[in-house]
């Protein structure tokens, strides 16, 4: 009912918009785009960098930062602020035809072009004067409405506030905003949080009054500039072997935030395709996917300075240095193979890495993926596919990931195998961004079934009698690389991947081989278009079911033959008949494991064996320390199920100790009978099996709850938490220990949270997103 009322209101307001625009034109004149960028060293530039930008980042970017920012308002850069707002949805699971992309720094080169694409300003574009600069600034007016209509002094905000991710946003222009605000004063900014304080408001008011001058980032130091030059030279050599290497690297690194680890100051870069060679200004080749036809004679791979604020939810840091350069040269150039011709960009080739990169040996490609496995998987976790419950209900809430040893499976024999089956490894991106869901689904389901039959036959041959099917099959990170073991957490509609085998033994585990690792990347990262139609999004989601099950099957192969079916049946309780049949067909691998089990609990024993096998490279940063605070809070790992069910997906806990803050994350893992349902996940939930994990540091980018404790409160907090049985109990706990979104000093605690995170995470730090902060 509430959404219906809002919709009716929007229709009424829309009918008045034309009249309002005419009135504004009569009063102020004709609007036009302003030139706001000034020199970095100018007084206006310094004021923006030192005074304005910190306020925007700490108070505004926490909600307005990425694809899912309300009204596409990205306040992370001067270009994003100038671009403004749009009513068009990026995440839309119902569109029948792919939408036009609206990617900042890619799909338009100027503010004028964004206006042509339908974006409205949040800064004054009417004739300039100090008064006009405020009156005609949507940004200013939203702040002013919040100042005039502060949050009610209540623990929980009422129905006039809608915090759902699919809420209907008004996205009103300045001409109609006053009418909207009169009827909905709750729309003042920051939305659903306290107003910014007077000093911050005065900074923004002064800046806006003076014309909202902005500057891009300061020039980098000489060392960094030299590193950019060196790496661009390496990636743009003429021989075909070098060009193919650069294309492969780009298609796997295009989402990362690249930095030079040996530099005194850290600057971030994006690896982009450009029409222009090194030494000339970058001219980005704007395509939906990194492997789409570039329509140029030669593609150049360039490092483009990242102009935007660093956000936790899409920050994928990647360190480059001389060691990395030598490693890439060793793998791709020093390895003996020949590139006779460069592959086509035709979609059936480019969307299928087993065709486009067939000339690169499997061992080279696989080792490249393994070297930075967390980084590559972060593309799935932090890329645009990873938003929303439907996109993520393809994975369990907590599972471990290990990898097959490359020397055991990556050789000339495997190269030939992939050449024989490359047509079966086609993926949904072959249909581009407009796909027919049913026919496409049937097509790729059949291809996957045929591939699995071929793969299973080869595995039965390779591991006959269990020979070689033991712990030596798992990659040990060459004795030093902690990418060998990962943990993935799903938080209902977001996810996180960290190094190490974190938390209690999980329900499931994946073991990835080369073909599986590569397909996950090309399905969910390189091949996924967030602007694609409903068919593209559905087929992508459904195909990932196959890949998840394949990874699980690889893990089950290490268990005794008679145990596999029982465990698999538990994982897929209440699954539909067609899925059960698919699982049965997957179970044709019938070789006994080569591991000699000593107990009657082989799965638990296998987890223990894997931990021991990888012990030399296990990252332990999220393990609880041996101090008193950590050990007491560690009791939350054994919370009663009734208390766990009340938990938000991600809760951060800060404990003040001698002027410093220790940070912990409390994660709620939703249990399922199975995760095969696309649209009815609730029917598959098994809440009585939910668990929680308390870990050291920060896991998750979207905190829903912030608990803040003095050291002397820790024991009482744990005691009270263990007694929680109902929502009323949980709300009482929050009243005593949580910093709610309505807390009058919310922003002070938010600053403490981010300061602590920056100290804890260092190069991995990014601004948290508050779009999922709990209203309870």
What does this entry show, briefly?
Keywords: Isomerase, Signal. The protein contains 29 helices and twelve strands.
Question: What would your notes on this structure say?
Answer:
InterPro entries: Fatty_acid_cis-trans_isomerase (IPR010706). It comes from Pseudoalteromonas spongiae. Residues 1-20 form the signal peptide. It holds the Pfam family CTI. The chain has 776 residues and is an alpha/beta fold. The chain folds into three domains: 2-37 and 66-209, no CATH class; 372-404 and 427-620, no CATH class; 628-764, Nonspecific Lipid-transfer Protein, Chain A. 42% of the residues lie in helices and 9% in strands. The chain contains 29 helices and twelve strands. Strands 7-6-5-8 form a four-stranded mixed beta sheet. Strands 11-10-9-12 form a four-stranded mixed beta sheet. Strand 6 (486-490) and strand 7 (495-499) form a beta hairpin. Helix 1 packs across helix 7. The radius of gyration is 27 Å and the shape is globular. The chain starts with a helix and ends in a 15-residue tail after the last helix. Residues 1-16 have low confidence and may be disordered.
């Amino acid at each position: 009912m509430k959404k219906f009322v809002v919709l009716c209101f929007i229709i009424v307001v829309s009918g008045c918009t034309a009249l309002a625009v005419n009135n504004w034109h009569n009063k102020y004149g004709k609007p036009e785009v302003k030139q706001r960028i000034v020199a970095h060293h100018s007084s206006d530039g310094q004021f923006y960098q030192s005074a304005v930008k910190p306020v925007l980042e700490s108070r505004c970017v926490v909600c307005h930062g990425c694809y899912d920012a309300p009204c596409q308002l990205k306040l992370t850069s001067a270009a994003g602020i100038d671009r403004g707002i749009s009513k068009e949805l990026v995440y839309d699971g119902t569109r029948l035809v792919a939408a036009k992309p609206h990617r900042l720094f890619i799909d338009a080169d100027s503010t004028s072009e964004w206006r042509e694409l339908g974006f409205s300003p949040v800064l004054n574009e009417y004739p300039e004067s100090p008064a006009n600069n405020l009156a005609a600034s949507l940004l200013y007016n939203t702040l002013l409405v919040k100042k005039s209509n502060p949050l009610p002094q209540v623990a929980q905000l009422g129905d006039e506030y809608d915090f759902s991710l699919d809420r209907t946003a008004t996205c009103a222009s300045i001409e109609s905003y006053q009418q909207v605000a009169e009827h909905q004063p709750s729309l003042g900014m920051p939305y659903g949080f306290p107003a910014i304080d007077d000093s911050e408001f005065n900074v923004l008011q002064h800046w806006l009054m003076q014309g909202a001058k902005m500057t891009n980032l300061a020039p980098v130091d000489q060392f960094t500039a030299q590193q950019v030059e060196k790496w661009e030279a390496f990636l743009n050599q003429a021989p075909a072997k070098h060009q193919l290497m650069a294309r492969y690297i780009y298609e796997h690194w295009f989402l990362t935030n690249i930095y030079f680890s040996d530099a005194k100051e850290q600057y971030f870069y994006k690896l982009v395709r450009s029409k222009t060679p090194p030494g000339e200004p970058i001219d980005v080749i704007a395509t939906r996917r990194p492997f789409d036809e570039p329509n140029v004679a030669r593609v150049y791979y360039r490092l483009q300075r990242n102009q935007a604020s660093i956000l936790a939810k899409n920050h994928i840091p990647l360190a480059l240095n001389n060691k990395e350069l030598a490693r890439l040269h060793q793998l791709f150039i020093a390895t003996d193979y020949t590139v006779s011709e460069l592959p086509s960009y035709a979609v059936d080739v480019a969307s299928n890495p087993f065709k486009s990169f067939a000339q690169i040996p499997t061992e080279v490609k696989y080792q490249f993926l393994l070297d930075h496995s967390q980084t590559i998987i972060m593309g799935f976790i932090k890329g645009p596919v990873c938003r929303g419950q439907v996109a993520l209900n393809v994975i369990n809430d907590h599972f471990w990931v290990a990898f097959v040893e490359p020397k055991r499976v990556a050789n000339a024999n495997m190269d030939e195998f992939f050449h024989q089956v490359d047509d079966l490894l086609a993926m949904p991106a072959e249909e581009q961004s407009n796909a027919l869901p049913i026919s496409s689904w049937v097509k790729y389901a059949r291809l996957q079934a045929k591939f699995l039959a071929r793969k299973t036959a080869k595995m039965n041959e390779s591991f006959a009698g269990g020979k070689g099917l033991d712990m030596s099959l798992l990659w040990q990170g060459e004795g030093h690389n902690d990418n060998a073991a990962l943990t993935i957490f799903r938080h209902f509609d977001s996810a996180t991947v960290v190094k190490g085998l974190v938390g209690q033994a999980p329900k499931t585990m994946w073991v990835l081989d080369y073909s599986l690792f590569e397909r996950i990347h090309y399905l969910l990262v390189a091949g996924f278009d967030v602007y694609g139609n409903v068919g593209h999004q559905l087929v992508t989601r459904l195909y990932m079911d196959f890949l998840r099950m394949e990874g699980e099957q690889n893990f089950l192969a290490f268990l005794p033959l008679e145990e596999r079916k029982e465990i698999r049946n538990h994982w897929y309780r209440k699954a539909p008949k067609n899925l059960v049949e698919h699982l049965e067909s997957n179970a044709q691998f019938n070789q006994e494991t080569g591991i000699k089990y000593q107990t009657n609990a082989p799965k638990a024993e296998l987890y223990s064996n894997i931990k021991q096998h990888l012990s030399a490279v296990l990252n332990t940063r999220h393990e609880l320390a041996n101090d008193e605070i950590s050990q007491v809070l560690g009791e939350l790992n054994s919370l009663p199920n009734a208390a766990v069910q009340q938990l938000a997906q991600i809760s951060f806990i800060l404990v003040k100790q001698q002027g410093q803050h220790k940070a912990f994350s409390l994660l709620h893992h939703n249990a399922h009978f199975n995760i095969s349902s696309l649209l009815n996940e609730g029917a598959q939930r098994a809440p009585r099996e939910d668990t929680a994990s308390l870990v050291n540091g920060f896991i998750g980018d979207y905190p829903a709850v912030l608990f803040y404790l003095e050291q002397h409160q820790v024991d009482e907090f744990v005691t009270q938490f263990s007694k929680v049985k109902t929502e009323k109990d949980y709300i009482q706990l929050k009243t005593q220990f949580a910093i709610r979104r309505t807390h009058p000093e919310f922003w002070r605690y938010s600053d403490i949270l981010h300061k602590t995170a920056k100290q804890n995470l260092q190069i991995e730090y990014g601004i948290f997103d508050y779009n999922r902060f709990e209203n309870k």
